[in-house]
Amino acid sequence: QVQLVESGGGLVQAGGSLRLSCAASGRTFSTYAMGWFRQPPGKEREFVARTRWSGDSTYYADSVKGRFTISTDNAKNTVYLQMNSLKPEDTAVYYCNVLKRGTYSDPALDYWGQGTQVTVSS
Questions:
Q1: What letter does residue 107 receive in the DSSP assignment?
Q2: How far apart (Å, rounded) are the C-alpha atoms in residues 102 and 33?
Q3: How confident is the model at residue 29 (pLDDT cuts 50, 70, 90)?
Q4: How many CA atoms within 13 Å lie on the side-chain side of 111?
Q5: CB contact at 8 A, 91 and 43
């Protein structure tokens, strides 16, 4: 019903920037908030940021607040994650997902996409 495709990851030096994209398709995704998650190597998946398609109700994990910005392009059905001042601890596979109604960060879909790898070197 909903397909999400992440892209934009890569290798970057500490202090650098990347912009991740999440292209969404489906009939019902626009009624849900969207979120970015990440899973560092050897660690659990964690919430990063969320937004509504309108651009309101944004929220960020403390670890990325002030450095990352989530935004939307409704015409392209795409959610972006602009990542600035990257740190080695930002290294992870980044995923997007639809969020459950009434929650800040719970994923609504029972599946995850391939994700996009972000590697930040010292």
A1: B
A2: 10
A3: confident
A4: 7
A5: no
DSSP-derived pairing of the beta strands 10-13 and 18-25 = unpaired
Q: Alpha-carbon distance 67 to 36, whole Å?
A: 14
Asked if 58 and 70 touch (Cβ cutoff 8 Å), the reply is: yes
* Token pair of 90 as six digits: 């930002």
Q: How many CA atoms lie within 13 A of 11 on its CB side?
A: 2
Span 49-66, average pLDDT: 96
Structure confidence by residue, pLDDT tens digits, 108-118: 998 999 999 99
Strand 92-98 relative to strand 18-25: parallel, antiparallel, unpaired? unpaired
